């Protein structure tokens, strides 16, 4: 009998409440590819900018600690060059897609 009372008490009063109510906060659903790209492309820009900044800071740090060693300075300069090339590719791709949209009169809502 005691077990029945405890199990009844647990079912009625101790049920955990869900962290997210699925009726008021449904899971993210993408209506089409444009909505998905509208989420992903800004994230790609942010991550690309953060990686670019980190690579420049790292290459500056490598130059500082190189101590006059020409080989270490060259490796640091290569790191900075790769960072600039990477961010240039991101910017050129974005400009080309915007130019393509302008020429063809297609609105890309994700840019």
Alpha-carbon distance between the two ends? 65 Å
Number of helices, counting only DSSP H or I runs of 4 residues or more: 3
The portion of residues forming beta strands comes to: under 5%
For the largest beta-sheet, the strand count, sense and barrel status come to:
none
Nearest-integer average pLDDT = 82
Q: Low-confidence spans: pLDDT under 50, at least 5 residues? A: none
Structural class: mainly alpha
The count of DSSP E runs of length 2 or more, i.e. the number of strands, is 0
Give the gist of this structure:
The protein has 111 residues and is mainly alpha-helical. 72% of the residues lie in helices and 0% in strands.
């Amino acid at each position: 009998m005691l077990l029945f009372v405890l199990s009844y008490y647990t079912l009625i009063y101790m049920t955990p409440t869900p962290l997210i109510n699925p009726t008021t906060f449904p899971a993210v659903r993408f209506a089409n590819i444009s909505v998905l790209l509208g989420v992903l492309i800004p994230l790609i820009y942010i991550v690309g900018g953060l990686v670019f900044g980190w690579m420049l800071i790292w290459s500056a740090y490598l130059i500082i600690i190189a101590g006059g060693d020409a080989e270490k300075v060259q490796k640091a300069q290569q790191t900075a060059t790769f960072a600039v090339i990477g961010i240039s590719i991101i910017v050129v791709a974005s400009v080309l897609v915007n130019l393509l949209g302008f020429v063809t009169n297609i609105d890309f809502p994700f840019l």
